[in-house]
User: Fold this.
Amino acid sequence: MATVQLSAAARNNIAEAYELSLSGQTLSAGAGAGAAVTGVAAPPRLLVYTGALPANCAATATGTKLVDMTVPADFMAPASGGSKALAGSWAVAAVAAGAPGYYRMVDAAGVCHEQGDISAAGGSGAMTVDSMSVGAGQTFAVLTKSITIPHA
Assistant:
């Protein structure tokens, strides 16, 4: 098996480009001295559903949609050590009642770029939330969410 290792700087750059893609932008290395960012920035949306995580982002979402939140414009903290964590406060009134099962991060066009499991504070989910039982109209708050680029 081949082994690939990336520097922290390279992983940080990949993580920053990932945040741009969620916002509907593209980073192109291009020729010469610099990179170019194209596209119009629009904050992505966080969708939270009941039930089991679909097979992949291309699969149709299943379960009941509990949360549909436009995240803050600068929704991720600067990358460090190849990781990015949520920035700011992510809270919104739930649109339905149920137990959160998984989340999806979608761009302004509704295309899923990330999905993951959810757990309560202290749990091992890709995202932790304040409550695993949500009532319609109840404030739903994300406590932690991060993404780590592999190959350290």
Summary: Residues 129 and 142 are 4 Å apart (CA to CA). The beta strands are 26-28, 36-38, 45-49, 65-70, 83-85, 90-93, 102-106, 112-120, 127-129, 139-148. Residues 8-22 form the longest helix (15 residues). The mean pLDDT is 91.
